[in-house]
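User: I've been trying to design a sequence by hand for this structure and keep getting stuck. Would you show me what you'd pick, starting by listing the structure so we're on the same page?

Assistant: Good idea, let's start from the same input. This is the structure you sent:
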């Protein structure tokens, strides 16, 4: 694609941001795409809730202004992250909690999430129309996931507004609230109707983005097609089909500097494809750290995951139960649903020589799993994009994935074209599919030249943001054109 010479002022709104606050891939995308847009010449400012844990990591945030929002006053502060400005919306509702931005430690959604993310969206809306004493009018407001979904809807109530883009990272998380909660928050009644925020009698924050943003995109071409079907549409497929000329897919990139086995400081030994033998040092370190028998020849399957229905953790547990006698090891790092934690720990107890589980969220340890494993398991039921399969490819760890969403767009089975094959694709998120996939990998692991070829194909792939950043710039232009056309239509003749 030819480089887009246009540059834009972009207000990029998100609820997590690597390296400050992360529950999953959303943080990594929001921590890397804005930098790629900046490198391409745009003026990007990120807006994020000013969580306590984030403020603690920042030296001296600069107070900009108090925003008097319909839901109450917030303080807007500013800091920088590498080369871009980050605006922090601070309010007591974003402080003083253990757990993550959305859930308590015991895995329950914070009861005031509807308030918190309505407040955040009201702040985005105010900044978007240059009412925040920044003397800065964005051309584009780029919102991400349900936590920011109300902002594109609120902006349609403004006489003059910037264009809006809404990116769906995961359609299953919708931010739906009861109608009376919507009324209690005194959110605009004119947005509550079936072509607006109303969703089966509830109000849906994500629908604000899906129905009102000028352009909607998701994080892979495959998932953009899937969400228009009943199977993957989470009840929104009708709306998405009706707006299909406004819905597209742009594959996520990754931060190629951050996720680089040659420089990653968390590894026991750095390596590249030319020094791939050093990967074994990481494997040994992983086995040691996990209390598994040290054995260079056994194929090690790695998992780093939110423990959630989406990720097929139950599928892994089912497959392992049938592979008890086989020659392999499994190393799992995960946090999330309690019943999955319990089942994984039970499996570890039953098969201590084969299965090791660490419950928790640890960025450093995740790097060692990426580098030390031979195969990375991602039997997801759906996967909007998935970053771990790309990180794995970069670390010479062959991904084993289901053929859905972004996984199908990035992983090519060992049986396909030898110049392209980089992992293993299974045809369904079921125990038997994964079991036979894992048997296939265990057998393939003994054929070192063929294995090296798969690793080489993955390790030499380019997953940088450059191409996708250009696609976002084109999407911004399309959204701006839409708003201009709309403006002309609304002008009195
Ligand atoms: P999702 O966003 O659906 O969870 P992705 O594959 O896009 O899936 O991204 C997941 C990101 O979160 C990756 O960077 C992965 O390494 C990280 N991650 C998930 N679980 C953990 C964990 N328990 N500890 C450390 N990192 C984790
Ligand atoms: C979501 C999706 C994941 C995607 C990530 C970043 O969390 O589940 O597939 O990679 O967002 O876009």
């Amino acid at each position: 694609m030819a480089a887009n010479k246009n540059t834009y002022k972009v207000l990029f709104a998100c609820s997590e941001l690597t390296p400050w606050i992360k529950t999953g891939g959303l943080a990594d995308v929001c921590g890397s795409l804005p930098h790629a847009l900046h490198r391409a010449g745009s003026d990007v400012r990120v807006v994020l809730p000013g969580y306590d844990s984030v403020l603690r990591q920042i030296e001296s945030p600069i107070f900009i202004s108090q925003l008097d929002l319909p839901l109450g006053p917030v303080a807007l502060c500013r800091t920088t992250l590498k080369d871009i400005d980050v605006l922090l919306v601070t309010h007591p509702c974003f402080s003083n909690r253990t757990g993550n931005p959305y859930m308590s430690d015991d895995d329950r959604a914070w009861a005031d999430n509807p308030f918190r993310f309505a407040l955040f969206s009201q702040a985005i809306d105010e900044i978007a129309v240059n009412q925040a004493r920044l003397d800065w009018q964005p051309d584009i407001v780029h919102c991400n996931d349900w936590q920011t979904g109300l902002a594109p809807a609120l902006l349609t109530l403004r006489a003059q507004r910037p264009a809006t883009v809404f990116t769906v990272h995961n359609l299953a998380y919708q931010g739906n609230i009861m109608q009376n909660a919507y009324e209690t928050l005194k959110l605009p009644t004119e947005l509550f109707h079936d072509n607006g925020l109303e969703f089966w009698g509830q109000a849906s924050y994500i629908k604000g983005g899906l129905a009102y943003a000028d352009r909607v995109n998701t994080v892979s071409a495959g998932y953009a097609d899937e969400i228009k079907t009943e199977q993957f549409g989470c009840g929104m497929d009708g709306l998405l089909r009706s707006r299909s000329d406004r819905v597209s897919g742009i594959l996520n990139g990754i931060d190629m500097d951050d996720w680089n086995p040659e420089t990653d400081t968390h590894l026991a030994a750095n390596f590249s494809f030319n020094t791939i033998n050093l990967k074994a040092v990481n494997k040994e370190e992983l086995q040691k750290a996990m209390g598994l028998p040290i054995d260079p020849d056994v194929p090690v399957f790695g998992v780093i995951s939110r423990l959630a229905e989406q990720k097929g953790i139950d599928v892994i547990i089912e497959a392992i139960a049938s592979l008890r006698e086989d020659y392999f090891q499994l190393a799992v790092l995960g946090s999330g649903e309690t019943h999955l934690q319990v089942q994984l720990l039970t499996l570890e107890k039953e098969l201590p020589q084969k299965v090791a589980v660490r419950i928790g969220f640890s960025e450093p340890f995740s790097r060692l799993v990426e580098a030390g494993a031979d195969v990375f398991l991602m039997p997801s039921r759906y996967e909007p994009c998935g970053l771990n399969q790309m990180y794995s490819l970069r670390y010479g760890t062959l991904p084993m994935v289901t053929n859905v969403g972004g996984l199908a767009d990035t992983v090519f089975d060992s049986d396909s074209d030898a110049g392209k094959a980089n992992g293993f694709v299974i045809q369904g998120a079921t125990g038997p599919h994964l079991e036979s996939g894992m048997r296939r990998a265990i057998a393939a692991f003994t054929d070192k030249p063929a294995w090296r070829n798969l690793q080489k194909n993955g390790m030499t792939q380019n997953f940088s943001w450059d191409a996708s950043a250009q696609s976002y710039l084109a999407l911004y232009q399309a959204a701006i054109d839409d708003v201009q056309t709309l403006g002309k239509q609304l002008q009195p003749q």
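That's my pick for every position. To get oriented when you compare it with your attempt: The pocket of alpha-D-glucopyranose (ligand 2) is lined by residues 24-26, 29, 169-170, 219, 252, 383-387, 406 (CB under 6 Å). Residues 9-253+465-490 form a domain with the Rossmann fold fold (CATH 3.40.50.2000).
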